[in-house]
């Protein structure tokens, strides 16, 4: 099953790629590496989760927010590469979690994105990762993700 | 107009490259990629903005701090590559904003750097970006920037 | 003296590589670049420092925590590459310091890792670096490190 088919079989559809709110772009490709701008839990331009995890939001809500954020990263990959099937490997993800004082389960929250990467890409979705807790995120979102992806060679 | 000429036409001059305050270096090159150490709003070794944005500093002051920080990144690029004209593409920038409780306009602040990148490098300055709000930054600066740059091939 | 010999001559031994606590992997290699997952101050699965630097922990304790964290990154490198002697260059390190309100000596803390990199790898250990202060880290650790390393070509 292709990665695009796997996405469909999971009952998921990707949103429109999020539009950068300033003078930057959704992703930049250098050779086979695709560097993706920070993505947040929005759908079609609407923020769908706000608040700090461990306070306003439960860790389970944070997990969902990470999943929604990841769909935006996938939309960026598809836009840049034409199809998720052009992915060779998910290389690295840094997950920032807006954390209430004393909340230390950032890994649980970012698993919302990591688990989905592996569900879609299998072995190719196993990535290096860091999860940190930050004070504040843009538009009061609970999660922001930065990804680096390796694409199949040949069409850069 | 070359990138160096564009810089001059904007009335800007670069400071001396900031000296690392410890056992690291201003940048490391791997192939055509240049990884630049975190830069802060200093000029010739003097910090020129201190405090948290949204509290001690306005978002407009944060924007200026991001601009001053970027000049240090450009100084590092020129030092490593010989000239800004050796830049092929600004690949990625992560902007950390020391944020007062409840301040969520990190993108506005980091635009101070993004806007200047595009003013100088045009299309080549359009980068992938993430902006996050952090609790504290070194020397109480309001902004720290991490950049990855692609240089023209041929002289590594 | 090889890097492995240098490690031994410093009286250091590496722990077992830390096991990811979720659906990600310790490192991912793309060409000669090795991207390493976030490492924290643990030894054989046990966290050895907890708390925020500048409050619960002194900056000197933070420095030690950075050193212990780095040993885990080195264990990941050895696991991925077979030996530390396969390192061509330490490219970049981002150091996150869980910081008590008003603590701004993140560079001092992260020097615990930077100094050790240079002690082991010499010139090849001089890296680009950013140090930031964050609100909270997983499992209440005071330090988390993200590294990118260039390996010698030829055996990917």
Residue fraction in strands of chain A: 25-35%
Give the helix level of chain A as a range of percent: 25-40%
Order of secondary-structure elements of chain A: HEEEEHEHEE
Unreliable parts of chain A: none
- The helix/strand class of chain A is alpha+beta
Distance between the termini of chain A: 24 Å
Number of DSSP strand runs of chain A: 7
User: Mean pLDDT of chain A, rounded to whole units?
Assistant: 96
Report a brief summary of the structure.
The model of chain A has no long low-confidence stretch (mean pLDDT 96).
Task: From the structure above, extract its key features.
homotrimer; 156 residues; alpha+beta; 5-stranded mixed β-sheet; two-stranded antiparallel ribbon; 3 helices; 7 strands; globular
Report on the structure:
Three copies of one chain form a homotrimer. Chain A is α+β, with helices and mostly antiparallel strands. Helix content of chain A is 29%, strand content 28%. Chain A is built from three helices and seven strands, in the order αββββαβαββ. Chain A has helices at residues 3-9, 59-81, 106-121; strands spanning 27-30, 33-39, 42-43, 46-47, 87-98, 128-134, 143-151. In chain A, the strands form two sheets. Chain A has a five-stranded mixed β-sheet. In chain A, strands 3-4 form a two-stranded antiparallel ribbon. In chain A, helix 2 packs across helix 3 (106-121). The longest helix of chain A has 23 residues, at 59-81. The two termini of chain A are 24 Å apart. Chains B and C meet through strand 1, strand 2 and strand 5 of B and strand 5, helix 3 and strand 6 of C.
């Amino acid at each position: 099953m292709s990665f695009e088919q796997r996405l469909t079989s999971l009952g998921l559809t990707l949103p429109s790629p999020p539009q950068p709110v300033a003078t930057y772009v959704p992703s930049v490709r250098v050779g086979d590496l695709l560097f993706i701008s920070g993505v947040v839990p929005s759908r079609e331009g609407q923020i769908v989760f706000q608040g700090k995890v461990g306070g306003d939001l439960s860790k389970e809500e944070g997990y969902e927010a990470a999943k929604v954020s990841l769909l935006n990263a996938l939309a960026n990959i598809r836009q840049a590469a034409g199809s998720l099937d052009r992915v060779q490997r998910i290389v690295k993800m840094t997950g920032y979690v807006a954390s209430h004082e004393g909340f230390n389960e950032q890994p649980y929250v970012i698993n919302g994105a990591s688990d989905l990467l592996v569900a879609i890409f299998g072995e190719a979705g196993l990535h290096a990762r860091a999860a940190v807790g930050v004070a504040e995120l843009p538009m009061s979102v609970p999660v922001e993700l930065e990804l680096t992806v390796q694409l199949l060679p040949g069409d850069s």
